[in-house]
Write a structure and sequence with these properties.
Elements lengths: L6 H51 L19
């Protein structure tokens, strides 16, 4: 009887293990979200630069004229 652990200790150990697993999952998700955020920030920056270039090339009227794109027909 003296070597037996109380049930509350086992319950706390199990709860601690569950929380440790949850923490690991949340840390991995956080790292992925941080990576996604950094990538999106770079995309926004590139788009801002391109937008500024288009505004600059638009001329004094501020209108950007989109040129038609010719699509090449592929052999099938």
């Amino acid at each position: 009887m003296q070597d037996a652990r109380p049930k509350v200790v086992d319950d706390l150990k199990q709860r601690n293990d569950e929380l440790q697993q949850k923490l690991s999952r949340l840390r991995a998700e956080h790292d992925q979200l941080r990576t996604d955020f950094q990538q999106l920030a770079r995309v926004v920056h590139v788009l801002e630069v391109k937008n500024q270039q288009l505004r600059h090339s638009a001329g004094s009227d501020g209108v950007v004229h989109v040129l038609p794109v010719q699509h090449q027909q592929r052999d099938r």
